[in-house]
Amino acid sequence: MKKVAFLGTLFASVFFLIIVHQVFILGNETIDSYFIEQVVLNGRSESLTILWKAITSFSSVIAIVLLTLVFFFLFSKRKEKMYFLGNVAGIVFLSQLLKFCFHRSRPLLAYQLVKESGYSFPSGHAMVSTAFYGYLLYCLWKSSAPKILKWLGSTLLPFLLLGIGFSRVYLGVHYATDVLAGFCLGVVFVLSYICFKEKDLKKEKKRLSRSFHYAGEGIVSAFLSERNMQIHVTIMFLVIFFGIYFQISLPEWITCLLLFGVVISSEIMNTAIETVVDIAMPEKNPKAKLAKDLSAGGVLVLAVVAAIIGLLIFLPKIGL
Predict the structure, then answer these.
(1) Same domain membership, residue 65 and residue 153
(2) Can you tell me the mean pLDDT for 61-66?
(3) Does residue 76 form part of some domain?
(4) What is the mean pLDDT of the chain?
(5) Are 173 and 314 part of one and the same domain?
(6) Are 63 and 199 in the same domain?
(7) Which pLDDT score is estimated for 219?
(8) pLDDT for 185-221, tens place per residue?
(9) Judgement on whether residues 60 and 152 belong to the same structural domain of the protein
(10) Would residue 309 count as lying in a domain?
(11) Residue 199 within any structural domain of the chain
């Protein structure tokens, strides 16, 4: 597994650097021009448009979110849930960060059959779907599922990814090099993440690894057991979605991320305080109640301030 992952990561990294060199250093857009001429300008039809819109939906935000929720609850172990969410969150964050770094505009609006916002390079759909479905395939092979199902998944996945990539070019929202770069980065990320996971599992008994493991378990436990934490996380994902939709600026993203960390961390600390108080003082006690009320009040203050800041950021975006 290590050799395959190393070779795959090396090949994908080199190919990505070649694309960057050709497009951003040399300004060579021969591949992009060829696909625009052959696919966008001369290869479209009504029936094909319906087909490729259906295929591209497998990599849409709605599809990824729904599948994430489904598989999150399908995984029986908390550790697997944590690794799965880490893969999704990591690839989404990396794709958006790289788009800000490269700042490549999308193809002309006249070419686009669907509405997309944000920058073009690398293709987020290609990048996220490669890492997302690639990790699911890895989980399938690690499971006790029948071999026929594993080989079926291994056979269909490349066709699905190629279809998603081609659909982005066909619909006119990405250049071919955007898609190729997205595939390369998705491969690099998912292979690196799988190696990290395998290595982390082997070193679980080591002190540092165990501390991160227990911290992760604490976060997952807080999410699964505390209704307020679930509300905070839901609001966080909604803010991220609308942040991408409205294309908020980098300082606004930094502000939102800081608020996410402060509010969620305070909720975790509040849960810890309540647990300690309940252990130390199982019977009713005015001072124990005061300690729990003060802790909850601190979280409320932070949540209200975060909500006000969020409104100041987003209300102007919707014209209010």
Answers:
(1) yes
(2) 86
(3) yes
(4) 82
(5) no
(6) yes
(7) 63
(8) 999 999 888 888 877 766 655 555 556 556 666 666 6
(9) yes
(10) yes
(11) yes
What is the arithmetic mean of pLDDT over 245-251? 82
Q: At which residue do the structure tokens 């969620």 appear?
A: 264
Please tell me the predicted confidence (pLDDT) of residue 180: 92
Comparing CA positions, the residue from 69, 56, 255, 6 lying closest to residue 168 is 56
Do residues 232 and 267 make contact, with C-beta atoms less than 8 angstroms apart? yes
71 lies in which domain range?
Answer: 2-204
What are the φ and ψ backbone dihedral angles of 258, each rounded to 5 degrees?
-65, -40
Residue 247 belongs to a domain with what CATH number?
Answer: 1.10.287.3610
The answer to whether the beta carbons of residues 172 and 116 sit under 8 Å apart is no
Would 226 be classed as within a structural domain? no
Q: Give yes or no for a contact between 99 and 83, defined as CB atoms under 8 angstroms apart.
A: no
Return the pLDDT at 282: 73
Q: Which of 90, 58, 93 is nearest to 168 (CA)?
A: 58
Q: Which residue has the tokens 């729990």?
A: 292
Domain count, the chain: 2
> Domain end: 177, 204, 231, which one?
204
pLDDT at 4 exceeding the cut of 80: no
**What is the tens place of the pLDDT at every residue in 99-149?**
888 888 888 888 888 888 888 898 888 999 999 998 888 888 888 888 888
CA distance 128 to 150: 21
In this structure, are 259 and 150 located in the same domain?
no
Average pLDDT over residues 264-269: 79
Q: Which one, of 45, 25, 42, lies nearest residue 33 by Cα?
A: 42
